[in-house]
Amino acid sequence: MNSPLLQLLVLAGIAVFLILRLKSVLGTREGFEKPPMPRGVEDDRPRRDFEVIDGGPDHDIEDHVDAGSSEAAALADMKRVEPSFSLSEFMQGARGAYEMILMGFERGDLADIKPFLSEEVYETFAEVVEAREAQGLTIEAEFIGVRELSVYDATFDADANYGEITMKFIGELTVAVRDSAGEIIEGSTTSIKKQKDIWTFGRNMGSDDPNWLLVATGE
Predict the structure, then answer these.
(1) Which CATH number is 147's domain given?
(2) Is residue 10 part of a domain?
(3) How many separate helices (H) and strands (E) can be counted in the chain?
């Protein structure tokens, strides 16, 4: 084999080795890539600033209540006592609690929801359920969904580290009241009705118990 051909084969082998080596270090690119910007042309699209500035707005609070309001101040105090507290997560939990507690009350099944009720609210619910049973009435209810959910009020007792958040719910459900003979005397099993509830949940912030209790109901 002549010398020029041998040199060519050696160079080709080195080139293949370098290509494989680069792929192992840099990887391969697939899919769409943005073409490079021409020199001298600035990218005038807005850029997101990911820097977190201490003392800046807390969007977890201000997305749900007015900045500077008493509700915002109370929620901020709750976070100072319990930094892991999230209003957005609380609201999602309140949505689920609303359905569970409302359906437990309508159907008279209070045992499962008792751990989520204050003593006063539980006693009120129990009295209503007992009165229905004494009259031979039963409730047939189906939950459709929550159409509106918003923070109605919030307060914080700094001395006791106790916070309360009042939520406004507008739910949709079907409710039929049946007498002892099973006849519908009020409502309907097919007609959907809207129901507005103002519920207050309370909890000692910073405690080991993460559960909020329903401490008051209203409309």
Answers:
(1) 3.10.450.240
(2) no
(3) 5, 5
Structure tokens at 80: 């100072």
Structural domain includes residue 122? yes
**How many angstroms separate the CA atoms of 13 and 26, rounded?**
20
* pLDDT tens-digit readout, 164-200: 999 999 999 999 999 999 999 999 999 999 999 999 9
Range of the domain at 177: 64-218
Among 176, 204, 199, 218, smallest CA distance to 113 is for 199
Which stretch of DSSP H or E encloses residue 166?
strand 162-178
- Whether residue 18 is contained in a domain is answered as no
Long-range contacts of 207-213 (CB under 8 A, 24+ apart): 207/161, 211/115, 211/116, 212/90, 212/93, 212/94, 212/97, 212/116, 212/165, 213/116, 213/117, 213/118, 213/121
Which tokens sit at 211? 């559960």
How close are the terminal C-alpha atoms of the chain, in Å? 98
State the pTM of this model: 0.73
- How many domains does the structure of the chain reveal? 1
In this structure, what token pair is assigned to residue 51? 């820097």
